Amino acid sequence: MTGGAGFIGSHLCERLAGEGNKVICVDNLSTGRKENVEGIANVEFVKQDVTKQFEVKCEQVYNLASPASPVDYRNLSVETLLVGSVGVQNVLECARKNNARMLHASTSEVYGDPQVHPQVETYFGNVNPIGPRSCYDEAKRYAEALCIAYHSKKLANVVLARIFNTYGPRMRLDDGRVVPNFVGQALRGEPITVYGDGKQTRSFCFVSDQVEALVKLMNSKFSGEAFNSGNPEEHTILEFAQRIKQMTKSESEIVFKPLPQDDPKKRKPDITKIKKAIGWQPKVELDEGLKKTIEWFKQKI
Ligand code: NAD
Ligand code: UDP
User: Fold this and answer.
1) Which residue of 30, 181, 229, 258 is most buried, as measured by CB atoms within 10 A?
2) Closest listed residue to residue 243, CA positions, set 231, 235, 255
3) How far apart are CA 124 and CA 139, in angstroms?
4) What domains are defined for the chain?
5) pLDDT, tens digit (0-9, with 9 covering 90-100), for 71-116
6) Active site includes 136?
7) Distance, CA of 100 to CA of 159 (rounded, Å)
8) What lines the ligand 1 site, CB under 6 Å?
9) Which contiguous run of DSSP H or E holds residue 228?
């Protein structure tokens, strides 16, 4: 597992190791933390930047290495482009040499600021190639193309998961994404910062549901294609801020800040394809997932 010391990766390591698998977690700790995987039986940590060549013996490859939060990938723009290009090729080569099946973690950002709603896998997207999000969006689009080229040339057996906004324990409080920002601000009694007018939408998937989707996709017969994985329940960001304020019983005021350039106005996955293919759909209600997440952030503050 590359990126195994990160938020989603560490939950995936835990799940796979818990089922008796030996997991090798390959991570350079740029946005992840070693403590996320320390102490999990059957998980071996290897500090390694996947943009440099590496060798690991394995039967399956989950490729999650990449900064993922808009704040992280803006700070690490060049590194993000490299991990999505050179890094993905090194990981594909690792899969090829081991004759291992690979799942590549792609993203809803391949759809950019979408003009089709909800987003279906056949939509090609609306991405600004020179905007502040382009280092991430274009790296992820290139990575998909590289995976498909390896698949077409029968060099590797790869499936693509287009992950939509996922949240839960082990997100970094300072990663800048909306869940840690709002929960951290609400718990500290600081103003809750809604960007723009808060009418933009996102659909939030709890991490255990996301992990289940990734494991099921890896163990399915599908390859050389992309599947949306996320929760289709859509919320405006303003309503989300109000919900977190209420759930944390916070006195924080909600304040409005400028909307970052190219921030997608709407996002909601169409999950018809993944539902039909592998019978997956999310189970965890937003309030239930947020309750667990808030508890975890409380311990961190
Ligand atoms: P994260 O930042 O917590 O995890 C990413 C991990 O990759 C970190 O541990 C980081 O140290 C590691 N990494 C980065 N560059 C590396 C490199 N060059 N070599 C080795 N390791 C490297 O982020 P996350 O939210 O857990 O995201 C995991 C994956 O899922 C990413 O590929 C991301 O693009 C994708 N994804 C996540 C979301 C989400 O909502 N969380 C949505 C869409 C896609
Ligand atoms: N957002 C916000 N306040 C914050 C952080 C984020 O209003 O403090 C908004 C952001 O503008 C976006 C949404 O919340 O519309 C989700 O942002 P996030 O960074 O979590 O991920 P994205 O889906 O944009 O990649």
Assistant:
1) 229
2) 235
3) 15
4) 7-170+205-231+269-282 (3.40.50.720)
5) 999 999 999 999 999 999 999 999 999 999 999 999 999 999 999 9
6) yes
7) 12
8) 2-3, 5-9, 27-32, 49-51, 64-68, 83, 87, 105, 107, 163, 165-166
9) strand 226-229
